[in-house]
Amino acid sequence: MQYRFLKFISWVLCLLPHSVLLWLGKILGSLYYQIAAKQRKRAIEQMMKSLQVPKEKASEICRDSFINIGRTFLEIMYMPKLNRQNFTDYMEVEHIDRFKNALAEGNGVVILTAHVGNWEWLSAALTFSDIPL
């Protein structure tokens, strides 16, 4: 039942423009920031300690992180909308030729990335760019 519900939500979200999806993700992340008091408090405390920033700055970073989580979640639900013809409308893949040239050497390539952006979309972008994963 949960699977069907999520598939339905995904179908509805795929009817929306991407800009609306990002706006909804901002609302979802902001709402989560407000209701997840335990996680918010822990995140703010850890940011204050590890980043050496005041509470106001840590709260801002935390809120932005929650918004990013909301957007990423909705983008994952939006993935059925992505295809080989339109994925570059939603994301930019830089230096793909360098990547393909390195693969052509026959030794494989390791991707090293930070915890930035939507990893699921990165995988889709590489696949749509004919990069074997």
**Global morphology:** flat
Mean pLDDT: 92
Please report the distance between the alpha carbons of the first and last residues: 32 Å
The gyration radius over C-alpha positions equals 18 Å
Number of helices: 7
Query: How would you spell out the order of helices and strands?
Result: HHHHHHH
Summing up helix and strand content along with how strands pair, one would put the structural category as mainly alpha
Which oligomeric form is depicted? single chain
Instruction: Indicate the proportion of strand residues.
Output: under 5%
Q: Residue ranges: pLDDT <50 for 5 or more in a row? A: none
Strand segment tally: 0
Query: How much helix, percentage-wise, in residues?
Result: 55-70%
Q: Major β-sheet, in short?
A: none
Structural summary, described in words:
Helix 2 crosses helix 4 and helix 3 crosses helix 4. The model has no long low-confidence stretch (mean pLDDT 92). The radius of gyration is 18 Å and the shape is flat. It is an all-alpha fold and 133 residues long.
Question: Quick gist of this model?
Answer:
The protein has helices at residues 2-13, 18-35, 37-51, 55-77, 87-90, 96-104, 119-128. The protein has 133 residues and is mostly helical.
